[in-house]
Design a protein that fits this description.
two-stranded antiparallel sheet, 12 helices, Isopropylmalate Dehydrogenase, ten-stranded mixed β-sheet, 12 strands, 40% helix, binds nicotinamide-adenine-dinucleotide, alpha/beta
């Protein structure tokens, strides 16, 4: 069966890294008989420029009609001053909400060849293999009311709402337990139950569900302690499950443990195999158009897409092995090269990974 993949390049470095991904997919087709077809859609700033809307109807239709979506990244200074409700980032939130992509998987794996690229000492991070599961369609990023209003005294007041329904917590925590069962049997739930009632409910739901998973050992951590522990001794964790906001911050922190944000892929799933796959990083406007962006996070996102949505684990393994192989050969992009090491551009690193596919 031919897989239908929607490519959304987005903004900044998005077109460069999504082009890398498309070349990789074409190579899988030529060399290993992978059958797929692609459609192209606009999201974010590029969509605002063409349609005046960061998530146009056409993109919505294409997203509903495909098997999986690969996104570069959205946003950039060009659109930072426009009304918040129609900014590029809001288009991505609408896409996630439209498809019900409530589960964000963010693996943070330190590849052995990169142990010296981490900002932590090599012995603290070598062997790190952590899965952060972030709730993606609820919490403070979506809660109403929200806004900035002018008070009687002329000063402004900003407000957002942190709200979670019990069912929203249950479905993400269930995936946390299931993931823990497939890995080491350890689950760390991160909240701020000492201060926020919403996360007191979160903790209660986790405790109630724990009896259904007697094989899993559950630990609760407050988010401030979790951040500290991730830097102090990251290998103590295996699977972490948390809210939208806390997961956003902790997964970027975990990204740095692995050397560069340019290395980390992510999957956003609807619970029925359909998913949006994208690098953890943003559109990096500071390096856009210079052929220096690291394409590996996007290439690893293709691997996750093949594994989690398209049921082609054997192709995913080929990609993982090709990335390992080029890194073991000492090939680097600028963001992961340590002092004095020469580096490859986006196109050249992609070529090297394609050449290493066996
Ligand atoms: P960013 O992740 O784009 O960049 C942070 C730093 O990391 C920059 O120095 C950048 O050059 C570097 N970097 C990022 N990706 C890289 C790569 N592949 N290779 C090498 N270096 C890389 O974060 P930011 O600067 O805070 O945000 C820039 C824009 O991206 C903003 O408009 C923001 O809203 C948007 N953003 C979008 C997403 C998304 O689309 N999912 C996520 C985060 C930020």
């Amino acid at each position: 069966m031919t897989d239908k993949i929607l490519l959304l390049s987005g903004d900044g470095i998005g077109p460069e890294i999504v082009s890398s991904a498309e070349r990789l997919l074409n190579s899988l087709a030529t060399n290993f008989g992978y059958e797929f077809e692609v459609n192209y859609g606009l999201l974010g700033g590029a969509a605002i420029d063409q349609f005046g809307d960061s998530f146009p109807e056409e993109t919505c239709r294409l997203a509903e009609d495909c098997d999986a979506i690969l996104l570069g990244a959205v946003g950039g200074p060009k659109w930072d001053k426009i009304e918040r409700a129609i900014r590029p980032e809001r288009g991505l939130l609408r896409l996630r909400a439209q498809l019900g992509l409530f589960c964000n998987l963010r693996p943070a794996v330190l590849l052995p060849a990169l142990k010296n690229a981490s900002s932590l000492k090599a012995d603290l991070v070598s062997g790190l293999d952590l899965m952060i599961i972030r709730e993606l369609t609820g919490g403070i990023y979506f809660g109403q009311p929200r806004g900035i209003e002018v008070k009687e005294n002329g000063k402004r007041r900003g407000f957002n709402t942190l709200v979670y329904e019990e069912e929203e917590i249950e479905r993400i925590v269930k995936l946390g337990f299931e993931t823990a069962m497939k890995r080491s049997g350890r689950l760390c739930s991160v909240d701020k139950a000492n201060v926020l009632e919403v996360t007191e409910l979160w903790r209660d739901v986790v405790d109630k569900m724990a009896s259904d998973y007697p094989q899993v050992t559950v630990e609760h951590l407050y988010v401030d302690n979790a951040a500290m522990q991730l830097v102090r001794a990251p290998k103590q964790f295996d699977v972490m499950v948390t809210t939208n906001l806390f997961g956003d911050i902790l997964s970027d922190l975990a990204a740095m443990l692995t050397g560069s944000i340019g290395m980390l892929p992510s999957a956003s799933l609807d619970g029925n195999n359909k998913g949006l796959f994208e690098p953890v990083h943003g559109s990096a406007p500071d390096i856009a158009g210079k052929n220096i962006a690291n394409p590996i996070a996007t290439i690893m996102s293709v691997s996750m897409m093949l594994k989690y949505s398209l049921n082609k684990p054997e192709l995913a393994l080929k990609i993982d092995a090709a990335v390992d192989s080029v890194l073991n050969q000492g090939l680097r992009t600028a963001d992961i090269a340590s002092g004095g090491e020469s580096s490859l551009g986006t196109i050249e690193m992609t070529d090297a990974i394609i050449d290493a596919l066996v």
